[in-house]
Amino acid sequence: MIPSVLPTYNRAPLTFVKGEGSWLIEEDGRRFLDLAAGIAVNALGHAHPALVAALTEQAGQLWHTSNLYHIPQQQRLADKLVENTFADTAFFTNSGTEACELAVKMARKYWHEKGQHERVDIIAFEGSFHGRSSAGIAAAGSEKMTNGFGPLLPGFTHLPFGDHEAVAAAISDTTAAILLEPVQGEGGIRPLPDACLKGLRDLCDEHGILLILDEVQCGMGRTGKLFAHEWAGVDPDIMMVAKGIGGGFPLGAVLATEAAAVGMTAGTHGSTYGGNPLACAVGCAVMDHVADAEFLSEVNRKAGLLRQKLEGLVAAHPDVFDSVRGSGLMLGLKCRAVNGDVVAAGYDALIATVPAADNVVRLLPALTITDDEIAEAVARLETAASRLER
User: In the CATH hierarchy, which top-level class contains the domain 50-290?
Assistant: First the structure.
């Protein structure tokens, strides 16, 4: 008999009932150190006072009106994003999946407006993850994501991640855009080298095509810059944002230059919930913290500390771990043991992590994690590794 909740998740046998900063409390009272952060969503940890205050204040005034009307909170958040990024404009969604849908539509509409209706193809990369909508799974293209869901949305070419020559050869008169994550998350914490991202920007400029970045997981301070592409010193034309932007409240966005958004006029796209007062009030509070230079400097310092300790962990347990990879507080432990076993052993050691492809365990702590919590996290991972070895 099918359960009342559709059984599409392989859930861990845990039920968390409360969160405090970097800690999760199970219903039996056990305290877990949270290095999952809701899969990079809880950027400021659980129950951050500023987010609680913003949500509570707005909840007492106005939750939702729809986009039939002006929304002051939405305007404030859009202004903050435009002020702090490459973008000239923003459209708000409820998730990264919805952001992907609009990014694809926007790129194709751009060329339609130019009268080049044949330019609909988008180059994407193996190992990517862009959500689970029709456009998202077509963009990722993996058998795991697409099996049984055909016919797929056409117009996507999939190339090896980081193969510049393959990209250059694949660009044709029907190419509209290149789409990629600067750091692949689900794909196993695989950062694209800065030189490669610069090279893709140059290719796009050379051929006049659009560069779309998916920073749903690697954005919002996760790598120590507000957005990961800033490390390479390049700007996209369109960017997908979600996860950390709401700090746990469902919120996403597509950011774009004025030129890239030229075709998106009244009636071309919409969302009933997208950018409502409640979500955007929280998003503004998140931006006030995450866009701050001192905050990002602290993320970088803590990232260095965590990575240093993880390198020691890998050296001490060579049968369990192979290496550390990633950027900022978006780190991965490449495992020699089965990554699912490492995650399960972590639960026994009261620490939450996230599995990924390529036999990697993702470490995505709150950006507010303390030095003492970093030390405790590595100690608990040490306990988990020792149990696996035994």
Answer: alpha beta
